[in-house]
Amino acid sequence: MDNCIFCKIIAKQIPASVVYEDDELLAFKDINPAAPVHLLVIPKQHVASLSDCTDAHAPVLGKMLALAPKLAAEHGIAVKTGPDGERSGGYKTLFNVGPDGGQEVYHLHLHVYGGPRPWRGLGT
Length: 124
Ligand code: 5GP
Ligand code: ZN
Prior knowledge:
Blueprint: H1 5-10, E1 18-21, E2 25-29, E3 37-43, H2 58-74, E4 80-81, E5 87-88, E6 91-94, E7 110-114
Antiparallel strand pairs: 1-2, 2-3, 3-7, 4-5, 6-7
Bound molecules: guanosine-5'-monophosphate and zinc ion.
Organism: Massilia cellulosiltytica
InterPro entries: Histidine_triad_HIT, HIT-like, HIT-like_sf
Protein name: HIT domain-containing protein
């Protein structure tokens, strides 16, 4: 898509701090992080929003979500379980969908953000 900022990142026409790339997906650091770690996972094939996804997108959506815990582990925000079973760490995964959902960039993206609190988070 000609005027899509994330398509331009995929095409390396504008820079981004890329943390993961394969045939279908790209992940990079959010330019305005809402938490100590804030990554965006996007499909390389342009689709504007989760609201435009159909059953045909289920595989790529699954891959996007399945990438989140791997990225979280690589960036030090994975959930850990201590010797007594207590959990620590963690992050959020989020799709903003449409104007009332707070979506500003119309290329499907999964936010993966977290790390030691406090942090402001996203939206309301
Ligand atoms: P949305 O509100 O659409 O769910 O989130 C869009 C996200 O993209 C925002 O968190 C914003 O900071 C991020 N973003 C917008 N433009 C750029 C950019 O050019 N580069 C990067 N790395 N992130 C961007
Ligand atoms: Zn795009």
